[in-house]
Structures are given as C-alpha cells and as structure tokens.
Amino acid sequence: MTSMQAIAAVPFVDGIVYGEGPRWHGDRLWFTDGLAGRVYSAGQAGDLAVEVELRRASGLGWLPDGTLVVSTLFAAELHHVDAHGSVTATYDVSDVAWSTNDLLVAPDGRTYVDLYIADGRGLTGGIGLVAADGTVRIVATGLSMPNGIGLLPDESTLVVSETNGSRLLAFTATADGNLGTPTVFADLGPDRHPDGLCVDTAGGVWVGCYDTGEFLRVVTGGEITHRIEIDHGWAVAPALGGHDGRTLYLVVDDTTHENLLAGSSMGRILQARVDIPGVGSP
Asked: Any idea which positions bind substrate (predicted)?
C-alpha cells in the first residue's frame, strides 16, 4: 500500500454563488452556477464569461454535434443549448423524477443523468439514459442519492458517487446504454459523502467529499492515493483540464443544506497541479 499524498490548492475564481458541474471543454473550464441562473466558462487566467442564462443549471455535457446539454437541480429538466448560448430545446422529465442533478455525456453521445425520485416516504435515486428526443429511460434504481458520474478509460465502466451511501459504485455499461448490476468501486466510510467526480487516465477517480471538506483521489478497491484539504466550505466537484490535462479544478461552496434550499451560498474555484492527466470524463 502506498502512502497518501497531500496536495495544496491555490485560488482560481471567486465571486460565484453555488458552483457545480465543472467540465474542461474547448480550452476553458465550464461550470454551472444554478443559484445565479448561469453557465460560466473560465480561461486559464481566470477570466469569466457567461455562456448561458439558465435557472437551476447543474450538470453539463456536449453531444457529438457540439450541442450543450444542461441538467437542473430542484427541477426535472434537461436543456439543449446551441453554440450561441441559446436554449433550443427544453425537456420536462418530471414523469420519471422529482429532480435531476449531475450529467454525463459519453464520447459516443450516450447521456446519463441522476434522477431523484420522490416515493412518498422520501427520495430514492436512479440513473437515467437520455435519448436524442429528450425522453429518459431508467437504467439503474435503488441508489442512495446518486451524484457525480464519470466514465473510466475503458469507456464501458460508469462510476457514480452514491452520496448518502458513502461510496462510489461501478456499473458495466453496454453500447446501447444499459447498466449492469453495480459493484463497489470504493467504500469511503460512513463520515464521507461523495459529490462530484472526475477520472484520470490511470483509472483513478478524484471526488469531492463535500461535508468533510476534502477532495480525494481513489482507485478501485478504495485506496486513497491523494488528498486535498480545504480550509472552509463544501468540497463539491473536481475537474481535470488545462493545457496538459493536469490542472485539477476544485469547486468549493460555502453553504448549508438549509441555506442552499433558500438560495444562500458563496462559491469559489481552486486549482492544483497533479501528475496524472484527465481522461476527459466527465
């Protein structure tokens, strides 16, 4: 067993409300700020641009034709956005879920989205496969608040944060998008609650454990190889990017569950350098 390595992070972007869904795309870091109703991008110098105005924006991904897909939190909606930042289609998926959250578009266009399903006794979780016409087919059920979604380098294994299950799950994904029975990729212990994640070329997963204020790199079996501790706030979501794929961007939000529901938060993004580049998923 190797020893865990600590990494320090430095500021990158400040002044957002509630950051989520970071993705490296087109030489810029894209992310959502659902409470501000915006999708942003940032250059490597930290210059911000508003790409889309969209309430409750949460997860991001791009279809093979360049269409941006945006999911929402606290609403079950999916949006298609063109290159000019105009919403070209909105899909209401409230027939299958109370809310969506994170989103993953695989390189071949397969699109997976978190589903939070109210059953009268509380929320259960599932994963939906999104068709080109915006309809959603449920391909996994019975999850304890699924969150971050990524694809391992083999492009046939889906890794999902199970926030209330304190673990990462791995699903074998077939070419038609179906998911097999999950296995435990990493058990993080009862005190950690994984949120967003990203994947590197060695098959390691960087994940934010929001309420313990840390970003971890874990490998299959659960070994933690690297850890970044933040001094305050929720460790919400990481993304690998930069000119060589080795800049790790870290979305941090200062809020509570009650304040988030009330729309009160202060967000920022940190950055750190790592040895293993991102695989481009999510």
From this structure: 101, 119
